Amino acid sequence: MLRERLRFSWQELSGSFGDLGTDLPLLIGVIIAAQLDSASVFTLFGVAQILTGIVYGLPMPMQPLKAMAVIVMTEKLSGPILWAGGWMVGAMMLVLTLTGILTQLARWIPQPVVRGCQLGLGLSLASIALKTYLPTGDAFGYLLGAIGFLILLLLPKERGIPAGLLVVLLGGGVAMSRVLADPEWHITIAWRFPHLQPLEPQALMPGLLILALPQLPLSIANAVIATQQTAQDLFPDRPLSIGQIGLTYSLTNLILPFFGGVPLCHGCSGLAGHYALGARTGGAVVIYGSFYLVLGLLFGSSVDTLLEVFPLSILGVILLFEAWVLMSFIKDQAPMPENWMITLLVGAIALSVPQGFLVGTLVGTTLHYLSKKMPLQLS
């Protein structure tokens, strides 16, 4: 039974890279924006991946909370506010899970609203890529971005080629060459462990209002509902409940802030990405987590150096492709005009309005049920 849940093969190794192109740019972006300790972030991210692979026995990933990451990167929020937001969203999700409200919400929030949240998130990521990352640097930076774009566009993913990893290695190689060329920079190998830290009480309310509330509807829609549906589609013989996913989501975010970790969630895009490149068991996620664990524990003292010289155009290209993947999910709503209109409206609200994901979810859900009673005339 254990071999069916955790396999370590070339196929699982290939599949383990299915989410790297999504996670690494977000982790790096949040570390830079909030000035976090990179060793703690990578170490805890690796531990979370490993435990998730063992618990679920599926290529079930943990990902940075995307709405929080976008807000932190755009608003340049501090680490204490980020950790407070992560703890608050974990506490709210735990209450929703234990009371059964989460399962009811999963039935109540309609599919076009879920897709609208994904559209809004994709548009936000694309905006960051185009405004913050891609325009930086000189002609060499644009050349790197073009090469990364072609790698992601042209390499056949169905053959298990880890295009995302190749692009990140390209950026890492450039960063390493810059370090080696400058005598003031150096890379060292030394143990660094996360340390216990308290939450700052004055950060709890900003964390709740600025980060947790905008994140919660997206987490319910994407990290819980869409992930459960994706797992059911890909692994029908290994059913997962909404409650299971909500519980691991909650516990992760109630623990990580006390050690300097980035708030995390499950994600349907990551599950699909691991599967697409060959992963079929939790072994792929264990391999993936081990990469971050080694990076954080042994090279943590040098990660900050590499991040300072890592070409931002590479991050921009990867974020742009992640945005495209998220936005592509909305195509299943196009044949239904009312659903399509709601999806586009929710996406626009999520992108442009303060607390947009929360407001968009409420507006979209209200319109959905009103349209059932009074069908909208779109002709």
Describe this protein's structure.
With 379 residues, this protein is an all-alpha fold. It has one domain (2-373). Helix content is 73%, strand content 1%. The chain has helices spanning 2-5, 10-15, 20-34, 38-56, 66-75, 79-98, 101-108, 111-133, 139-154, 163-181, 201-234, 242-255, 268-276, 283-309, 312-328, 337-352, 356-373, and strands spanning 63-64, 264-265. Helix 6 crosses helix 11.
Concise summary:
The chain has 379 residues and is mainly alpha-helical. It contains 17 helices and two strands. It has a two-stranded antiparallel ribbon.
Query: Looking at the structure, what is the overall shape?
Result: globular
Q: Given the helix and strand composition, which structural class is it? A: mainly alpha
* Rg over CA atoms: 20 Å
Count of DSSP-assigned helices: 17
Count the E strands.
2
Task: State the order of secondary-structure elements, H for helix, E for strand.
Answer: HHHHEHHHHHHHHEHHHHH
Counted up, domains total 1
Task: Estimate percent helicity.
Answer: over 70%
Please give the order of strands in the largest beta sheet.
Answer: 1-2
Q: What share of the residues does DSSP label as strand, in percent?
A: under 5%
Pfam family, one: MFS_MOT1
GO molecular function, one term: molybdate ion transmembrane transporter activity
Keywords: Membrane, Transmembrane, Transmembrane helix
Organism: Thermosynechococcus vestitus (strain NIES-2133 / IAM M-273 / BP-1)
